[in-house]
Design a protein that fits this description.
about 575 residues, 9-stranded antiparallel β-sheet, 4-stranded mixed β-sheet, binds adenosine monophosphate
Amino acid sequence: MSLSCDLSVLEELTSNAKQIQDDVLTKILKANANTEYLSRFLEGSSEKELFKKNVPVVSYEDVKPYIDRVANGEPSDILSGKPITAFFRSTGTSSGEKKIFPANDNFEDILLGLALSSLIMSKHVDGYKQGKVMIFKFIQPISTTPCGLPLAPSITIIMKSKNYRSPGKRSTTPDEIIMCTDPKQSMYCQLLCGLVQRDEVVSVGALFASVLVQIIRILEKYWKELCSNIRSGRLSDWITDHCCRDSVSIILGEPNPELADLIENECGQESWQGIVSRLWPKTKCVETIVTGIMAQYIPALEFYSDKLPIVSSIYGSSETFFGLNVNPLCKPQHVSYTFLPNMSYFEFIHVDADGEATGEIVDLVDVKLGAYYEPLVTNYSGLYRCRVGDVLHVTGFYNNAPQFRFVRRKNTVLSIFVESTTEEDVLKALDRATVVLESSDLMLTGFTCFGDVSTVPGHYVFYLELKAKVNNDTNVLLLDEKVLVEYCCVMEESLSSFYRSLRRKDGPIGPLEVRVVQQGTFDSLMEFFVTRGASITQYKTPMCINSAETLKVLEDKVLARFFSDKSPPT
Ligand code: AMP
């Protein structure tokens, strides 16, 4: 399929979802039926019925030995008829575990998905096509597997692939800057280019909201220096990457004291409320994913952008690209993703309210409105009926393609006794407790949690990075004990009834604790993961931390601790 497309392609794909899914499975089986993996079940047959009857539903751990064998140098036809040419490193699950997924070098479908997403934005956002986007992107250094194949996050591999087409002049950032693998230099230069072209910017974003919030923090730290660069027309000396220097210099141009004054005036104001729309006045929307675990950043982004629409445009993973938000200006709580049937062969395991599989497996076009499912992916590069670990809720259909709300990752994130607290439970509690913070003018800018079983009884610990909405000169965060204890209590009241029943006096779970950390702690956490190979673009703050090494990053920065002072009502 050609990449230069229009929105009729979306109509065609979604109208013919059943036929396209059928064709995708036929193609995959024809190419892969003789792989070692599949031939155990199919004996070379590419019969779809046999595939469904004999090939087991698996999780990543079941395929991992095969993936590792290819990564270690055995021929790729163990898994895939088409050569495996690279490995995608996923950011893993909420528990932070990393996975690698085989990929072959045909990214046309993914690029088509991205092109469609951009067309949808042009259709829904007035003037989008005429302006520039300031979407922060980062690539990681590419490492190699033991057999020498490239290994990096999917976005890095795709952006470096031969068929990737850069947005060119549609973006404020030249490709050379994105290709710089030093995140600090890249971020600074991307900000500088965006500030210089502020009058043309119609959209500000980053793939995930956690990254965008971090970029705003970098702006808070560096705005004086950025203004000084603009004033003098000279880039700071610490930007040593030659490609960055060359391309920023062209954009920076002559000294521009008027622009520097203007930016200084906005950034120097007491409150940063609406800073995005103040610095980039033609911005129509903030493009960043705020569904799932990213929902925690909605209040911060609404504050900085003065409630510009926040657009969650795509849903994808290292396993496959899933779908698009065809209604980009809807409220974050109403976002659903329309699955694109050409991406992979999709099946769905029906799950109950707790995310437990009930056993029934259906095809893409047979999912039922209102039901919850976990997707299974069969792709071209060696995954067969592999569970993704996300829980999705069917909210409608676009033509014949189902639309799903992202509910959560399946894993339990906290469990001290026998209760199972999921991402969704935590996010719900967080959402309710945010009201307490707002009443005292505090804003949550970073969050993660962990189940502390070193105390008896064990208890839930929430690390919060907070920021005052109004800057005070001292930059000291004033923490009101009453507010934070109330925060702990509201969190507990909002957790599941089972949790609350276990939190009774002398029960098996102790009072919930909040540890407020210094500003910048979550940046350090991200740096910690990035130095260990995580992608900045795909980075998501882990919802829950369970490694001692990672906890140390947070523990070193704890400013104050607060505990819930009463058992929650059951
Ligand atoms: P990765 O393989 O590192 O790209 O991580 C993929 C995972 O990120 C998915 O399985 C989801 O759990 C999460 N994810 C990706 N896109 C979205 C989205 N639009 N909304 C919520 N979660 C997402």
